[in-house]
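Order emerges. As here.
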Amino acid sequence: MRKATTLAILGMTMMIGVSGLVGAQESKPAPPPIVAFGSDSPERGTTRVGFWNTKKDMGAGQFAIDYGRPVWKKDYEDAAKFDAMTRGKVYRLGSNFWTTLDSDMPLTIAGTTVPAGLWYLGLHRSDDGATWSLVFIDPAKARGAHIDASEIGRAPVAFKAPMTVEAAAETKDKLTIDLIFKRANPKDVTLRVAWGKLQLSAPVQVPVPSAD
């Protein structure tokens, strides 16, 4: 009898314990509607082209691209996975905060007129995966809707410039954006994006002002 009573008490104790655990789980507070996040010293890259008037010894224009440098993952080399991430989508270019183009002069990128000012950048890949474009987003509209760079798919696209797919000479472990030019011909610049085995480029024509 004593043994039966002891087992009954033990069973009730276990049931109370389990009931308390379930209650604790059910009463776990919901996360707040708005939470904050950040980045600890994120690595960023900058590429810039500047022009100097040697006659007047003063600046003659400049533009620069600032971007986060995500690491290329081995998984991206799986064509099916990479296609699922990029085909038919506006794709994030960079990491953390927006990749930006800041120019104090109008530019022509692959035949597309880009007004002077600040632009958020992204990439677009066609539905068939054959073509890529550089995407330009008006920062004012993105700010107005509080759109994070990770949500680039819902940002309104102002316009696009076509990019050429190139054969990559090497694999870039981190995103690398370069503005390549020759000092003897500063009006013609090449914009190159390299990440993993993906390499894209676009010609940039710059309206360098007269030195007079």
Observations:
- Residues 45 and 112 are 25 Å apart (CA to CA).
